[in-house]
């Protein structure tokens, strides 16, 4: 009985995502589709950051680097080798994970603020590298000829195709986030988050666990990047490695509740809705980042557990159901 | 012989924390380690379970040289430890804390199998009713029990207990002593660092005395407590010396 509860919780979460994702398909609304595309992309980004930050306790400020790299890898494969989008996206995910794995071995030795700073450095270094890397188009970037979309039934259908892809990746990401949290692997990560030295005395190899967590958390943003830039038809270093996106991702995780499965989802949805409201409201349009910063400050000062964490603390009954 | 420590030295800058210490532990015994504050007792534990590599000397566990192995590798071979300063994984529940021990210790259990061990161990240390509490919400005595439970859940062959009685009231001390005896009855070898003389003297089969990083005496509690060198070492701490003298008469 006890073990079926978390499972049913996962199914419920997935069901809600599917139900919402179906709406633009049923009413054939392109604008709603674009809104949801962005929201789901942020859900993927926030849930991934949560794996390394919420479960393992390592704040990855520059996590957007995997989103950008995923986009570039996939774009490169599609453009130069006519690889099918799905294959290119999967390859970019694997590529980003391998990159994170190799990078994690030295960088995850750093603790606390030093790791956070290092991840910013990585993002900036990769951005500079790509800006000067001619096979990736250098500072100009790369762009598709419209003919590329013919393989997916034309540009209009390709947009829908990208949407289905992001829905699937979002569902897979949430499932993976849940399974990791409920696994022995996840328990090891959380032990490292609480006290790495104690975890080590209890038999956990911290380096191995952290590097694997980092590789997992790099996989899904890379897929999201591949889909996003496929849909865009153009990729440039600036938007691909936008540090601001990274920081917004952290705000979402903190807002929803770090270390929980639903936290990053709630955080991404609330943050995106808020941003959309502020940006379209003439009084606030230039203030949305100010308000985002203020929000982060309030969470860090008064509600470190975030929305979901706060609910779990306040309503003990929810602890059994809400992960 | 389950554990052999040979000629271990450990230096921190100008301080020689351990000076050519050797000792051996038989399977199934309880070995007490005593000594004034700063004698190097906890450092010795840190060397045995891999937290510090020694400058020289060798630690052999069940015939295998484990000197310089990282702590997790030593834990997986069956040496568990309860810390002097309790280190609960604060934001995890009691059950999760103990599950970490069971999952990553000597038997490397899967979550399902670990759950049974965890129930058993929590029952054993008398914390079954606290299983869903956050570790940070426990009081000191409970946190010490949690340290023990976590160590036991790894199904160790050797357990290192670092002042598990410190800070407990007399009633809690009696409970804890009973628990340690029960651990030994299960066939686990115990090394215990303790300041509470009557407890360590009652419990131990053998006692090793450290002072300024060196071993100054070894033997049965009776022999050690009558050793003039031991009494001298404790004179810097008159109360402890008095207590020792009381025991020997």
Polypeptide structure, described:
The complex is a heterodimer of chains A (323) and B (249). Chain A is mainly alpha-helical and 323 residues long. Chain A contains 14 helices and 2 strands. Chain A has a two-stranded antiparallel sheet with strand order 1-2. Chain B has 249 residues and is of the alpha/beta class. Helix content of chain B is 41%, strand content 24%. In chain B, the strands form 2 sheets. Chain B has a 6-stranded mixed β-sheet with strand order 6-7-8-3-9-10, with helices on both faces. In chain B, strands 2-1-4-5 form a 4-stranded antiparallel β-sheet, covered by helices on one side.
| First-to-last CA distance of chain A | 16 Å
Radius of gyration of chain A: 19 Å
Question: Total number of β-strand segments of chain A?
Answer: 2
| Oligomer status | heterodimer
Mean pLDDT of chain A: 91
Q: What is the tally of helical segments of chain B?
A: 10
Main sheet record of chain B: 6 strands, mixed
- Inertia-based shape of chain B: globular
| Poorly predicted runs of 5 or more residues of chain A | none
Percent in strands of chain B? 15-25%
What fraction of residues of chain A sit in β-strands?
Answer: under 5%
Strand order of the largest sheet of chain B: 6-7-8-3-9-10
Helix content of chain B: 40-55%
Largest interface: A-B, 20 and 29 residues
Order of helices and strands of chain A: HHHHHEHHHHEHHHHH
Helix-strand makeup class of chain A: mainly alpha
> Ends of chain B: how far apart?
33 Å
Strand order of the largest sheet of chain A: 1-2
Q: Report the average pLDDT across residues of chain B.
A: 89
Tell how many strands the DSSP assignment of chain B holds.
10
Count up the helices of chain A. 14
Topology of this protein?
The complex is a heterodimer of chains A (323) and B (249).
Chain A: H1 4-27, H2 30-55, H3 64-81, H4 85-107, H5 113-131, E1 142-143, H6 154-182, H7 184-194, H8 196-201, H9 206-232, E2 234-235, H10 237-240, H11 243-256, H12 262-280, H13 288-302, H14 306-314
Antiparallel strand pairs in A: 1-2
Chain B: E1 3-12, E2 15-25, E3 30-34, H1 41-48, E4 56-61, E5 64-65, H2 71-77, E6 79-82, H3 94-104, H4 111-124, H5 140-153, E7 158-162, H6 170-185, E8 189-193, H7 197-203, E9 206-211, E10 214-219, H8 221-225, H9 228-235, H10 238-248
Parallel strand pairs in B: 3-8, 3-9, 6-7, 7-8
Antiparallel strand pairs in B: 1-2, 1-4, 4-5, 9-10
């Amino acid at each position: 009985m006890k073990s079926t509860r978390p499972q049913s919780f996962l199914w419920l979460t997935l069901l809600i995502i599917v139900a919402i994702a179906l709406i633009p398909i049923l009413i054939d609304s392109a604008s709603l589709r674009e809104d949801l595309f962005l929201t789901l992309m942020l859900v993927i980004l926030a849930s991934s950051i949560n794996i390394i930050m919420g479960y393992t306790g390592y704040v990855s400020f520059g996590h957007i680097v995997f989103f950008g790299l995923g986009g570039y890898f996939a774009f490169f494969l599609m453009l130069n080798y006519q690889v099918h989008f799905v294959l290119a996206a999967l390859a970019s995910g694997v590529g980003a994970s391998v990159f994170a794995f190799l990078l994690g071995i030295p960088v995850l030795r750093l603790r606390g603020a030093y790791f956070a700073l290092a991840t910013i450095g990585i993002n900036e270094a990769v951005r500079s590298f790509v800006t000067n890397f001619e096979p990736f188009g250098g500072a100009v970037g790369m762009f598709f000829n419209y003919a590329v979309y013919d393989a997916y039934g034309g540009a209009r259908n390709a947009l829908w195709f990208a949407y289905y892809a992001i829905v699937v990746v979002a569902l897979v990401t949430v499932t993976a986030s849940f399974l990791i949290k409920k696994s022995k692997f996840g328990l090891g990560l959380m032990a490292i988050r609480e006290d790495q030295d104690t975890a080590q005395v209890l038999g956990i190899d911290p380096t191995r666990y952290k590097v694997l967590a980092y590789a997992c958390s790099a996989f899904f943003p890379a897929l999201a990047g591949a889909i996003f830039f496929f849909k865009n038809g153009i990729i440039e270093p600036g938007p691909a490695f936008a540090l601001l996106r990274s920081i917004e991702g952290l705000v979402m995780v903190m807002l929803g509740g770090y270390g929980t499965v639903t936290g990053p989802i709630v955080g991404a949805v609330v943050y995106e809705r808020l941003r959309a409201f502020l940006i379209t409201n003439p009084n606030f349009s230039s203030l949305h980042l100010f308000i985002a910063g203020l929000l982060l400050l309030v969470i860090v000062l008064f509600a470190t557990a975030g929305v979901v964490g706060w609910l779990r603390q306040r309503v003990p009954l929810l602890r059994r159901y809400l992960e | 012989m389950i554990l052999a420590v040979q000629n271990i030295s450990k230096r921190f800058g100008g301080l020689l924390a351990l000076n050519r210490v050797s000792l051996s532990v038989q399977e199934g015994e309880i070995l007490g380690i005593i000594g004034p504050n700063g004698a190097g007792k906890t450092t010795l534990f840190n060397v045995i379970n891999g937290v510090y590599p020694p400058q020289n000397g060798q630690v052999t566990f069940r015939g295998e040289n484990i000197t310089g192995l990282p702590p997790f590798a030593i834990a997986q071979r069956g040496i568990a430890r309860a810390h002097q300063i309790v280190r609960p994984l604060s934001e995890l529940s009691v059950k999760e804390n103990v599950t970490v021990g069971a999952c990553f210790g000597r038997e490397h259990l899967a979550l399902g199998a670990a759950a049974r061990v965890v129930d058993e161990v929590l029952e054993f240390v008398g914390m079954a009713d606290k299983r869903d509490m956050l570790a940070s919400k426990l009081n000191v005595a409970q946190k010490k029990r949690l340290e023990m439970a976590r160590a036991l859940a790894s199904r160790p062959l050797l357990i290192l207990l670092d002042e598990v009685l410190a800070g407990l009231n007399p009633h809690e001390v009696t409970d804890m002593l009973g628990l340690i005896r029960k651990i030994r009855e299960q066939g686990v070898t115990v090394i215990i660092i303790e300041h509470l003389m009557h407890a360590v003297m009652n419990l131990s089969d053998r006692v090793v005395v450290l002072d300024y990083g060196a071993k100054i005496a070894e033997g049965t509690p009776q022999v050690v407590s009558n050793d003039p060198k031991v009494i001298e070492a404790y004179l810097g701490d008159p109360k402890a010396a008095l207590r020792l003298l009381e025991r020997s008469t």
